[in-house]
Structures are given as structure tokens and as C-alpha cells.
Amino acid sequence: TFTPRVFSGIKPSGGLTMGNYLGAIKRFVGMQGDMQTIYCVVDMHAITVWQDPAELAKATREVAAGYLASGLDPAQSILFNQSAVAAHAELGWIFNCVARVGWMNRMTQFKDKAGANAEKVSLGLYAYPALMAADILLYHATHVPVGEDQKQHVELTRDIGKKFNHDFKTDFFPETIPVIDGPATRVMNLRDGTKKMSKSGESDMERINMTDDADQIAKKFKKARTDPDALPDTMEGLKDRPEAKNLVEIYAALDDRSPDDVIAEYAGAGWGKFKPALADLAVAKLSPISTEMARLMDDPAEIDRILANGAVKAREIAEPILQQTYDIVGL
Ligand code: ADP
Ligand code: NA
After folding, report:
1. Can you tell me the ipTM of this complex?
2. Least packed by Cβ within 10 Å: which of 1, 285, 308, 310?
């Protein structure tokens, strides 16, 4: 049996969005204290697509600042960047040799990201879910909080761990559970309720950035696309209204309530009432975080120090697990 342990990470590949906050970071904070929690800035995943080196370093600090400003506490959680712990790459290679090409070919995110360009993308982009499995299993993590878009990759992690255990007749790696709960595991963008809010969203009005100030947050919510109808009294009534459903779910996540509870409160209300209320709520919850992020980003040396301390603690867990893996494999 394995001690419950949480691992998750975010790529430093451009600015953090409210999708990353509600779907990941806020939930990371919620798990702090319940179990040992390890949160990584996965910079080696970021370079699966081209990153300007200076921007990458800045984006790494921005993810760390987002973690800290949202309430992750280096005294309670291990916070570090992936490239500082070489064991990730080493176990990643072993898992490249465990995972099957057919498994990778089924990864829908690769198909979406590579599209018609699949011959021209990096080999790393194709292989990254095996590195993600290494990130998780290097700590014998049992729980991985992620947004819905990462579910398939966490399931692949289970498959890789199982195949390793089977091939080497061991029970060395745990079965990892994806933790995908709450109302905001798939936040859509504000202009098109069918597209995920993403760091690479096409226009700035589509996404809320974690660095947006109060005015930007309010303006974007007030301009969010909606439909002409008033709000129904149950979530069921929103099933064919993606923009409306998204806004109610965002409200619920920001206010730590269920969508059912929010829709019951606003039943019959028009957008003229709901959108300003949502904008006020979002400003109240998000702008203190962006203010704190700006303060932290003014002192990059302090962020680097926190990440370096976290890497020391991460290595203490990771290195013995890597050594045992090498022994099992015969390396
Ligand atoms: P992105 O998808 O923004 O490039 P990552 O791939 O680094 O970010 O994802 C980091 C975490 O944030 C993952 O757990 C992912 O599922 C979550 N996440 C990203 N976008 C959203 C979203 N729009 N809604 C909910 N969770 C999200
Ligand atoms: Na993602």
C-alpha cells in the first residue's frame, strides 16, 4: 500500500488563465494539508513546442508566482520546477520504453495540437504523456488533480505503471487516480462557449489572465458572449446553452458553491443582473491574486530561491525511487 500523495503541474508556456486557476491551482490549494502535496512547474513539457529562452524563464516564475499568490505554501507543499530534478527525464526515458506507440497514437490532445502538421511537430510533443507519467510516478503519487483535458493522460499513466509492474513482476508503482471534481474542470472561453479557455486562446477577450487587473476582469466578463434568454431554474435548462452554462459554472467555482445553488439563486434573472454580479465576484476573488502575483514577480530572486528549496525536497523523494527503478530494470 502507498501513502496518499498528490502530484500535479502546469506548463510555463505563456500566461496563466482563469482556466488554470479554477481547473487546477485553486483545487491544488484545496488539497493542501490533507495529504502530502507536490506541485511542479513543468518546464520540460513547455519546450515540446518552441519557447523563447528568456520568456520561458519568465513564464516559469509566473507559474510559481501564480501558485504562491493563490495560497500554495512552500512550508506545506513542495513547489519546484521540473528541469531542476533530473530524475524526471531519466524515468521519462524508461517510460518511453514501456509505453507503446499504439497507446500514444490514441492521445486525442496530440491529434488536436498537431492537427494536419503531425509530421512537423517535435518528437517530444508526441512523447510528452510518457514524461508526464514519469513526473507522477517518480513520487509514487496516488492522486493527480487535473482539468478534464488531462484525464486521458492520467489514465495513460496508470497503463504505463501497470505495464511496468507486469513486465518486471513487481508492484513498485501505484495506481494513480485522476482527481477531476467541482464545477470548473473544463472552463470555456468567454467568446465561444464550446472552446476551452487556453493560454494560447486567440484573442485576449476570450480568456481571463491570472495577471489581469480589476478593470480588465470586469470588462471581459461584461463583454462575455451570452444568449438572449433569462436564466432557468435548474442546470438541466442550460444543457444546450454552452455560454450560459459556462458562466454559471465559473460563478459557482469562484464562490465555492454548486452550480445548482447558483442557478436557484438567479432563476429568472436576465444577463443585465447576472453578468455584473459575476464581474464583481470575479474581481473580488481574482484581483487580489493578480496584485500579489505582480508583487512576487518584482522579486525574481525570491521565487528562484523558493523553487530551488523545493527541488531539494523533491530530489529526496525522487532519487531513491529512480534508483530502485534502475535496479528493477537491471540498469
Ligand atoms: P494549458 O492547457 O492552459 O496550456 P496546461 O496544459 O499546463 O495548461 O494545464 C495545466 C492544468 O490546468 C491542467 O490540469 C489542465 O487540465 C488545467 N486547465 C487548463 N485549462 C483549463 C480550463 N480551461 N479549464 C479547466 N482546467 C484547465
Ligand atoms: Na492542458
Report:
1. 0.95
2. 1
